[in-house]
Automatic annotation (TrEMBL):
Name listed for the protein in its UniProt record: Eukaryotic translation initiation factor 5A
Residues annotated as domain Translation initiation factor 5A C-terminal: 85-154
Post-translation changes: eIF-5A seems to be the only eukaryotic protein to have a hypusine residue which is a post-translational modification of a lysine by the addition of a butylamino group.
Signal peptide positions (record): none
Function of the protein: Translation factor that promotes translation elongation and termination, particularly upon ribosome stalling at specific amino acid sequence contexts. Binds between the exit (E) and peptidyl (P) site of the ribosome and promotes rescue of stalled ribosome: specifically required for efficient translation of polyproline-containing peptides as well as other motifs that stall the ribosome. Acts as ribosome quality control (RQC) cofactor by joining the RQC complex to facilitate peptidyl transfer during CAT tailing step.
Gene Ontology molecular-function annotations: ribosome binding; RNA binding; translation elongation factor activity; translation initiation factor activity
UniProt source species: Spinacia oleracea
Keywords: Hypusine, Initiation factor, Protein biosynthesis
SUPFAM superfamilies (alphabetical): Nucleic acid-binding proteins (SSF50249), Translation proteins SH3-like domain (SSF50104)
SMART domains: eIF-5a
A Pfam family annotated for this UniProt entry: eIF-5a
Species lineage: Eukaryota, Viridiplantae, Streptophyta, Embryophyta, Tracheophyta
Length: 159
């Protein structure tokens, strides 16, 4: 054994992963799962009994949280599945540009200009109409696996 003290200096971030493993048998409806490398919200889970090969299987049906596509996956219940880290952040809407991007105000006073308008028609109409009327709007941005998209809108009154 060595009596030396070791000190490690890290100049980078912790390198947080975009996903974390979770046993397939513990993932429930309304949770999240990665299916075919896409972050999905679980809308249906069914578990089969153990067969002659010994594993109960979980059948997951998920909806991609960014494009709304339905994806399915079957995983042995004792195996690990990837679960995405999904975060939701609220920003104040400052401007909508002609090229389809939005300008948002962050909590620390900076602007965030790299987000596109939402693809959901109802949300897009609500956002554009509210902005045109001069309302103060707060947009909710959902982030998972390096992707971001506007997923909600709150009206906090006139400017």
């Amino acid at each position: 054994m060595s009596d030396e003290e070791h000190q490690f200096e890290s100049k980078a971030d912790a390198g947080a992963s975009k996903t974390f493993p979770q046993q397939a048998g513990t993932i429930r409806k309304n949770g999240y799962i990665v299916i075919k490398n896409r972050p999905c919200k679980v809308v249906e889970v069914s578990t089969s009994k153990t067969g002659k090969h010994g594993h109960a299987k979980c059948n997951f049906v998920g909806i991609d949280i960014f494009n709304g596509k339905k994806l399915e996956d079957i995983v042995p219940s004792s195996h690990n599945s990837d679960v995405p880290h999904v975060t939701r952040t609220d920003y104040q809407l400052l401007d909508i540009t002609e090229d389809g991007f939005v300008s948002l105000l962050t909590d620390n006073g900076d602007t965030k200009d790299d987000l596109r308008l939402p693809t959901d028609d109802a949300l897009l109409k609500q956002l554009k109409d509210g902005f045109a009327e001069g309302k103060d709007l707060i947009v909710s941005v959902q982030c998972a696996m390096g992707e971001e998209q506007i997923c909600g809108l709150k009206d906090i009154g006139p400017k």
